[in-house]
Amino acid sequence: MNSKNFVDEFNVSLKNEELFNVTDYERFKNKELLDFLRSKIIQNLIDNNINNQKDIESFIKDEIDYSLEGYDLSIEQRSYIYNLIDNEVNGYGPITELLRDKSITEIMVNGKDDIYIEIDGKVVKDDSTSFINDEHIIRTIQRLIQPIGRTIDSSSPMVDARLSDGSRLNAVIPPLSLKGPVLTIRKFKQDLANIDDFLRSGALTNDMALFLQACVKAKLNIIICGGTGSGKTTLLKLLLGECESNNAISKNIEFEYFPYEIKNENDLTINIAYKILPNLEEWSLYKELNLIKMDANILYRNFSTLSGGEMIKFLLICAFLKENKFLLIDEPTNHIDEESKDSLIEYLKQKKGFILVSHDRKILNEVVDHILYIGKQNITLEQGTYNSWKFNKTNRDNNEIEQNKRLKNDIMKLDAI
């Protein structure tokens, strides 16, 4: 006897509903109601000043039930609201789970329902996460940068910051962004957290560490090259001794990491200089300002009123004024205009003894005088610019390819005998 399934036996017709193709943004389509309920619940939480975690969770449930009285919502929609509020209170909005997921290395928010993530080097669209509207994205950005003392609004519409876990955050909002608020978070690479990890993975050997130490002692201007997320900043942290490890890079010189984090951007610029340099002699500050072609009047303006280029150049001046320090300069040209970049390059040309991490070919080609290349099989140090090193490396690679071809032809001839 042939068995029949339930559908065939009882002649049941199935609706072809693509339930699993519904995006997160479409699960609660009435965005005005969703935003209203979210604002009402959050405001009630603030007014009641709930501090105990258990009370918060209990209050959220009670407040949602109370707020939803009279609304004909499905179980899925009610669950959606609870998850939304829970992430707002205990996390960083809709991207909370993305930030916790260690397999995700980058988060890109291009719009309320246009979110991409990077996993294992591949960028994919994430339909399981969405924001209510543009204001919801801006609130999330503000929540992310508030603990590090940064702000973002229409008068200061761009922020580039390092979060407490080492992740890089870049955000741009209107009027600077023409398509609405956008947010990118490059998460700190956890699998290369200390020297042991570098040694274990083969990214660094004892000989490499000794060679790097010799370059530092010689006060060479060194660049560190590598793709995004390859561990450039982590290497700087190793030199600073910030990463715990059973091994260490020995050094007889003090390293200084740049850029600095400024906790109070509303302070006068001159006061920030004294906080970085307690024993500052003002004549030396004026001298450096002249070298980098900056007006001394910026010292008596609030730091927050400076442009991105002015902030970078001023803080770099303070870094070079620290005595007996070897600077580790991390991405100094991020989000500065060409004029500021040119004056920054001219300033760095006059300085000696620093390690530079940058993706900017112009600064790499004009500022450094030596190129340290750490390959899979050897370490090379060449005098010259980035372009000259790239030209020589391309020639060497081509010569190796031609030599391999000749060897293969010789082998084929021998086999034919």
Account of the 3D structure:
- A six-stranded antiparallel beta sheet has the order 3-2-1-6-5-4. A four-stranded parallel beta sheet has the order 7-10-9-8, sandwiched between helices.
- Strand 9, helix 13 (338-349) and strand 10 form a beta-alpha-beta unit.
- It is built from 15 helices and twelve strands.
- With 417 residues, the chain is an alpha/beta fold.
- Helix 3 (53-67) runs antiparallel to helix 4 and helix 11 crosses helix 12 (308-321).
- The longest helix is centred in the C-terminal third of the chain and has 31 residues, at 386-416.
Concise summary:
This protein has 417 residues and is of the alpha/beta class. The protein is built from 15 helices and 12 strands. The longest helix has 31 residues, at 386-416.
